[in-house]
Amino acid sequence: MTRFQRFPTAPARLVLAWRAAALVAAALIVGVLLALSGRDVFVLGELVLHSTVGSRFGLEDLALFMTPLVLTGAAVTVTSRIGLWNIGGEGQFYLGAIGAAGVGLYLPGPQIVVLPLMALAAIACGMAWIIVPTLARAYAGVSEIITTLLLNFVAGLLTYWLATGPWRDRVTGALASSGRISDAIPELWGVVHWGFPLSLAIAAGLAAIMTWTGWGYEVRVSGANPGAARYAGMPMRGRVIAVMLLSGALAALAGMFEVAGTVHRLQGGMADNFGYLGIVVAVLARRSCLAVIPAALLMALILDAGIVLQTQQLAATAVLAITGLVLLLIAIGDELAHYRPVAPASSTRSGVAA
Amino acid sequence: MEMPAAAPGTPPVLQLVGICKYFPGVIANEDVSLDVRPGEILALLGENGAGKSTLMNVVTGIYQPDAGEMILDGYGTEFASPQEAIRAGVGMVHQHFKLVPAFTVAENIHLGWSETPRNASPAVLEARTQALSEQFGFPVNPSARVEDLSAGEQQRVEILRVLARRARLLILDEPTAVLTPAEARDLFSALRAFRAGGNAVIIISHKLDEVMEISDRVTILRGGRNVGTWETRECSPRMLAATMVGREIVPQDMRARAEGAAPRGAAPELSLRSVSVRDERGIETLSDVTLDVFGGEILGIAGVAGNGQRELTEVLTGLLSPEQGEVLLGGRTAAPGADAFARSGVGHIPQDRLHSALAPSLGTTDNMALREYRAPPIGGSGLFRADAALALAREIAGVAEVRIPDFGAPVRNLSGGNQQRLVARREMRIASRVLVAAYPSRGLDIGAIATMHRYFAELRDKGVAIVLVSEDLEELLNLSDRIGVMFHGRLMATLDAEDADIERIGLLMGGRNMGEDAASGGGVA
């Protein structure tokens, strides 16, 4: 008799297999529901595939979606490594966009100088936006979840104010938007700019730092058990501050890439939930900086497919429901990956349970 | 024995026949049969991992057996859940209490109970709790919050909660592990009263003295199997120990030095000079403590838990900087910080290994690198070399004689004894000067405790100074050269183990100094 037993760890192989099954199951459920409501599922499916992975235009779109998602996903992942949650990616994204736009709009100069300055300004603004939650966490034990979250709304309104007030576009009169920024991240492949490979390199670099440096080890131990970190004399407070500032900088860099690579303006509402979706990406990546890349790809696919479906007169709420279904099934798959079959009563005894 | 013999033909309260329970790659219980009769206390004895807790989890419906039968009062039974077990009169008090800390005693007693009245006002619940408390002879304060209670008081609430639900079979998992000797005595007399009412008790333990004192019969488990059941009066502690571990345990006088052992050092390795510490509420937890530890000796620290031992070990290992006084390492003022102390050769086996010595969710490799990741071969120039860390982990596991199937798997999957061996060996590697060990044998079985003691003797013979904090006087007397006694944050006295006796230490632990007329009062906090 084969029985299934829940193990405390889930091997990556099983997680992947279950997630693949979850995606197939989601596709089937959505397909059946669409067919029942009188849609031609195969035409829709082909359209979705064509406009995501099946055409150059679709692939370019995917890469553009992935770029901010990789960075905001990495921002949440690094804090989760030390046991914290930066829910403020959205706000830090806006601040990064503001910093970058400010330099781009009002600091003339050669592109080779202005672009790095835009990035630096974005990083500085993102760090400034998370510094209060960081210090409150490190010195007073204030939950960073609440403080980072609440600052998102302030950042969103600040962006609207700038884009409709002092920085508003006086040339074309575009609504809730600054003027066009002439300095842009060079394009690499169609509309895909250099921010895309750069964000992948940043995720890989973070993974290397987390695995192969003493700093990464200290972050790992501090996150797994603060008591053990204190016992080993690790500078916990310093690590918490560094990781949260790094997180703010990553989300802000996503904002800078968006301003200088894709939108070329500061626009109200431009963060478009990328900060919050970064949390979903981080959860999908299960604390691994490297796994942020495929997780962001999956998220980008879902977003992209959703847009395609909306062009086919599917309600935005239906698209949201499909997104929720996919994530729900993946969460179930992750849980199932903890279960493995066990053969009872093998005569070899490798240990005895307590 | 004043125990009322059950009338002939009275079925056992509980009978287990051929119970099997398997976990992946592990046999937790195999073909276990035993019975518990009305009016008796049955001790379930076995090493860590012998399958005692699993068996009791089967009995109380937390696990379902893979094979075998459970017979309650002569009828075959199956429990799908703990609720069914308690409805059938089988109640268990776990080692780690399952109470809601923020609730009052009365609220905890009435939580999830079908007989809780609709009108659950505090006054009603507290009155009911008071009545129950008097009925069963377990004094509790119904309006107190559970988080404010001592471990002993919390245990009384747990037991009362089970008894209130009309349990006739009470199962206790290592009930005295968290109790002071006085609280343990109270518990035992309450259990005897419960037995006198024709009820049955199963008490899980690996403390031999306690089994001899309280039980009527003993069932011993080893490797998940039932080795046998004996009348306690026919047993001796020595025979029980040998049966439990499956080999003869030779009690050793660990104080004897091996040949060629390093002599006791002339200058102290680690000293405290009038050290005082206050907690965050400003209460003095360590008062004016002065002590010296010399190389090649074991200094035992006795005392009832909570009398400043934790603060003492933290000061000795650099985790806590004293507010007043000085800490000297090798005669010089020590640089502050746990890291600096570790680098100067101070190892630390803390009292709660899962809370501070290990990161339970990380692998063995990461956990074994905790002390040596800063320096080559693992560290250096900011790097963390995972292959070197793995090599270190293999080496430590080898010396500790712990078999690790997967060095990346969470260390919490290992048994408590194996975790402690790994921690001990990791700390012994860096303890070139001093090793501070707090309650190193807590929660370990006899075999693992013997290993731990052997480690300390080896280290002492190498000339390292050892501070051993323990509440087990037997252990302290067997190992220590000198014994210091803590009471209310003070070091009451330091005695040579040669002329120390349990009586004298016991008095000091209660705050009475010989000659003095019990100046500080006899009460133990």
Automatic annotation (TrEMBL), chain A:
It is a multi-pass membrane protein. InterPro entries: ABC_transp_permease. The chain crosses the membrane at residues 20-42, 62-84, 91-107, 113-132, 139-163, 196-217, 238-257, 277-302, 314-332. The keyword Membrane applies. GO terms for cellular component: plasma membrane. Keywords: Cell membrane, Membrane, Transmembrane, Transmembrane helix. GO terms for molecular function: transmembrane transporter activity. It comes from the Bacteria. It is found in: Cell membrane. Pfam families: BPD_transp_2. This is ABC transporter permease. It comes from Acetobacter nitrogenifigens DSM 23921 = NBRC 105050.
From TrEMBL, chain B:
InterPro entries: AAA+_ATPase, ABC_carbohydrate_import_ATPase, ABC_transporter-like_ATP-bd, ABC_transporter-like_CS, P-loop_NTPase. It is a peripheral membrane protein. Signal peptide: none annotated. Keywords: ATP-binding, Cell membrane, Membrane, Nucleotide-binding, Repeat, Sugar transport, Translocase, Transport. Residues 14-248, 270-513 form the ABC transporter domain. GO terms for molecular function: ATP binding; ATP hydrolysis activity. CDD domains: ABC_Carb_Monos_I (cd03216), ABC_Carb_Monos_II (cd03215). It is found in: Cell membrane. One of its GO terms (cellular component) is plasma membrane. Pfam families: ABC_tran. Gene3D superfamilies: P-loop containing nucleotide triphosphate hydrolases. It comes from the Bacteria. SMART domains: AAA (SM00382). PROSITE patterns: ABC_TRANSPORTER_1, ABC_TRANSPORTER_2. This is ABC transporter. It comes from Acetobacter nitrogenifigens DSM 23921 = NBRC 105050.
